[in-house]
Amino acid sequence: MFGNLGDMMGMMGKMKEIQAKMKAAQDSLNTISATGESGAGLVRATVNGQKQLIQLDIDPDLVKPDDREMLQDLIVAAINKAMDNVEPKIKAHIQQATEGLLPNIPGMDLGNLMG
């Protein structure tokens, strides 16, 4: 009976360790970044691992009042590409931070644990 209690306490300790490592990994996601481009590089958006836009570069030739709609479309496209590009980096960061703590279960997505 005491063996089971000890196992349970050990599992609870392991869960606390996993939670602490996940929190540390989440807190450091702002150190990861990815860039997306549109319009053959005329618009470049950079996002961090917390999926926040941190930089937007627009070629000066695009900033014309009559091209406003095209510019808006290019900005949206660049940001969306940056968000897509950062996703695998986030997953790799979380996986590296929790390596050895959780069993490698095919199909288990640790990114979903972040909320």
From TrEMBL:
A cellular component annotation (GO) from this entry: bacterial nucleoid
Enumerate the GO terms in the molecular function aspect: DNA binding
One Pfam family name is YbaB_DNA_bd
Q: Where in the cell is it found?
A: Cytoplasm, Nucleoid
Where's it mainly located? Answer: cytoplasm
Keywords for the protein's UniProt record, in alphabetical order:
Cytoplasm, DNA-binding
Asked if Cytoplasm is a keyword of the record, the answer is: yes
| Superkingdom in the source lineage | Bacteria
Q: How does it assemble?
A: Homodimer.
The function of this protein is: Binds to DNA and alters its conformation. May be involved in regulation of gene expression, nucleoid organization and DNA protection.
Q: Which HAMAP family match?
A: DNA_YbaB_EbfC
Q: Which family does it belong to?
A: Belongs to the YbaB/EbfC family.
- Protein name as catalogued: Nucleoid-associated protein FAES_0655
Q: Which organism is it from?
A: Fibrella aestuarina BUZ 2
